[in-house]
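Quick question, first post here. What does this chain look like in 3D?
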Amino acid sequence: MVTRAEPGSQPRLPLSRERVLRAAITIADHGGIESLTMRRLAEELGAEAMSLYYYLAGKEDLLDGIADAVVAEINDVVGTIDVPSAGASWKTAVRRRILSAREVLLRHRWAPRVLETRTNTSPAVLLYYDGLLKLMRDGGFSYDLIHHALHALGSRALGFTQELLDPSAGTSDEQAAAALESMTDQIPHLVAMLMDVAHDDPGSTLGWCDDQTEFEFGLDLILDGLDQMRTTT
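> Answer (accepted):
Ran it through. Tokens below.
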């Protein structure tokens, strides 16, 4: 399908599913996932909204598509990593892979929320995990221990963590702080912790307290534990 150019204007590029998804990612990168609608996407492409349904079954298909595209970008990045992974080197190789995936997600901060809501596991995600398993097999892990490892890593294996507590969700930082202070008598230890560890580093976070230091702390803790199990089981 080719979009028609207005008289006197430059011919528009023909639409394709790939071009539609790229435009959707651009919108989400600049305005967040909430800004991505079929109408807004059509405006970005200079097309009629109904014409997008030639390439997309609907909003869920759009979200599936952009999630796949981001993971495909991750696969392209980690595919260029060339470091040893045999024996004890597995940990460095896995750490490098996961932190490289995280760098991609930091360019698409909306992506973790979309990935969390997908009900179908895409070939791109399967390819990513297959590469991760290869590194662990190179390190001498049994498939049984790898299975436990993936449960321990959870979403961290793809470069992000799911927030346990986010007191600022749906509110401003000031409103969240006031709400916490009002509950000091009821939950003093939780309030003290949340007030102490709240972060304000938008350049390195994918969530409320998911900053780079904390992400790497958790990742290293898991990888160190797995390395001990690798050599004792």
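The two ends are 58 Å apart (CA to CA).
Confidence is low (pLDDT under 50) at residues 1-5, 7-11.
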